[in-house]
Amino acid sequence: MPELPEVEVTRRGLIAPLQGARIASVRMGKPLRWPLGIEAAALAGRSITEVQRRGKYIVLVLDQGVVLIHLGMSGSLQVSQLDAPAGPHDHFDLFTDQHLLRLHDPRRFGAVVWSPDAYSGMAAKLFANLGVEPLESGFSFEHLWAGLQKTRTPIKQLLLGGQVVVGVGNIYASEVLFLAGIAPTKPANQTTRPQARRLHAAIVEVLTRSIALGGSTLRDFVQVDGYAGAFQAQASVYGRAGEPCQQCGQPVQVMKQGQRSTYYCKRCQK
Ligand SMILES: [Zn+2]
């Protein structure tokens, strides 16, 4: 599943081809997770003024309205030549006068949704429960600390939920908790202040590193699977059950939490 760093890498790749471009036409394939919310033809003639991101949504800011794109479980975006033929899993094509932005999504859990702006309509609904952005100034230590104090939820589940801070998906949750030395099952409100300090630093470090890695391995074509592989190759614990812990040499453990795999070191994480 594409996580925040992949989406951010995708966003950065879209700025040059799309920012300032005028939409010529839009083609919709099979239904995605939600309806577009406007006639596709009504987007023709509008200009893309900015390419932003909120959580895992790419936000195309138009001169009138915004278009939110979510990659769902299996989606990826490509910038292609205008005459590239659509395949059976290409369900959204946005043509400008120079480029084609194409959403390829075999499982169709992705979404392309129009909203009058980022603060009302579908955008307001979809963004309502999103926590702060991890790489913006709103993600202070005190914000994280306050979020941890509010609940006994296991800390990994709290991070995955995204209500305190967005972007710590399944791979990154295992990694940041390992770096911070915190057991993934620990009730969030039992985290100590020093642990929370380490966790705050680890979240920023891991996501920053991950985006940098994606930025160096991907160019115009964003292939989520290839990207995840590149990050996993550098992961400390994720996907490494049975391998020696990099800190203590004990075998890395794996368990299920809420049907997702959690990788951790029993000895190093308290
Ligand atoms: Zn260890």
UniProtKB/TrEMBL annotation:
Q: Which residues form a coiled coil?
A: none
Entry-linked Gene3D superfamilies: 1.10.8.50, MutM-like, N-terminal
Listed GO MF terms: 8-oxo-7,8-dihydroguanine DNA N-glycosylase activity; class I DNA-(apurinic or apyrimidinic site) endonuclease activity; damaged DNA binding; zinc ion binding
Q: Which CDD domains match?
A: EcFpg-like_N (cd08966)
Residues recorded as binding DNA, renumbered to this chain, are H89, R107
Q: Which Pfam families match?
A: Fapy_DNA_glyco, H2TH, zf-FPG_IleRS
**SUPFAM superfamilies the UniProt entry points to:** Glucocorticoid receptor-like (DNA-binding domain), N-terminal domain of MutM-like DNA repair proteins, S13-like H2TH domain
Cofactor needs: Zn(2+)
Q: Which UniProt keywords apply?
A: DNA damage, DNA repair, DNA-binding, Glycosidase, Hydrolase, Lyase, Metal-binding, Multifunctional enzyme, Zinc, Zinc-finger
Would the keyword DNA-binding be found if you checked this record's keyword annotation? yes
| Record GO biological process | base-excision repair
> Which parts of the sequence belong to the FPG-type domain?
236-270
Can you tell me which family this protein belongs to? Answer: Belongs to the FPG family.
Report what the protein is called: Formamidopyrimidine-DNA glycosylase
Report the source organism. Comamonas piscis
